[in-house]
Amino acid sequence: MQKIDLEGKVVLVTGAAGFIGSNLVIELFKTIDDIKVVGIDNMNNYYDVSIKEWRLKEIEKLGGQWTFIKGDISDKNVIDKIFSDYKPSVVVNLAAQAGVRYSITNPDAYIQSNLIGFYNILEACRHSYDNGETGVEHLVYASSSSVYGTNKKVPYSTDDKVDNPVSLYAATKKSNELMAHAYCKLYNIPATGLRFFTVYGPAGRPDMAYFGFTNKLLKGETIQIFNYGNCKRDFTYVDDIVEGVKRVMQGAPERKNGEDGLPLPPYAVYNIGNQNPENLLDFVDILQQELINAGVLPADYDFESHKKLVPMQPGDVPITYADTEPLERDYGFKPSTPLREGLRKFAQWYKEFYKV
């Protein structure tokens, strides 16, 4: 593995106003000296833009060497200009159209952002070496646990075959891994893909179950628990994800040649998950307790009358479960935040943000 010192470096974070992106930028400014971060985000209205604006304000409070560009990674000119103006050493591609269910109704958004956008990033990385420049030392990009599709074997290992996506979102993420592999092989770009498992926490995405449940319960609406509650999810707290990303940024797959004298692709893929799948019903139970503790919901709230067990949704899978041993072996890191602690922080943030 090639060690990369981030001190004094320029880092490009795409999707910088997003849930993981903004938390990553904050962590980099808090822990790495003299780092310069360029962020890009299209600030689309897939969910409440005021949450994205709140996240950007949190970054600005730190007063680091921060440049924010409102733009879309699917616009090749925008990406090329960022690379020529700022010459990033490390690129973290988190910009993507997220969500399994939305990919059924709005497929265009996924092709634009997840395929064309990622292609633009790969091309810019490739040309960063032109004219003998040092160029990009490491490209880190978001994949997803959804690439495992209906994989029966658990825990999910990065050695498993992942050729059976059950949503267009999953198919685009698998495509990202394939595209990255080709570029690593052809142009010797060190790249690492990270398969994230159900990320949650304060200022998260409102389309995620825990956030949506909270909104509905507060309005007195009924929440639907899919697969009659027989779903298990490897919930991973956002700080754990960010710590994992930060460590991976600092260790790139090594460039080396094979027996034929040609470069072996400096390519790797890891799972980042909690390695501890929680039953959806238990998850909802802890969430409701923490919402009461935070004062979001009244102590006598009648949960039973507000929950309904329903069948599985198209594109969904019954279980997600990460084998994180390789991440632990190579980077000495394993997510460890207990679900209750993470949901407590979410409930406290929710109370404050929405002034409940």
UniProtKB/TrEMBL annotation:
Protein name, entry field: NAD-dependent epimerase/dehydratase
Pfam families (UniProt xref): Epimerase
Top-level lineage group: Bacteria
Span of domain NAD-dependent epimerase/dehydratase: 11-259
Residue ranges crossing the lipid bilayer per the database entry: none
Record-linked InterPro entries: Epimerase_deHydtase (IPR001509), NAD(P)-bd_dom_sf (IPR036291)
Regions annotated as coiled coil: none
Record's keyword terms, sorted: NAD
Gene3D superfamilies listed in its UniProt record: NAD(P)-binding Rossmann-like Domain, UDP-galactose 4-epimerase, domain 1
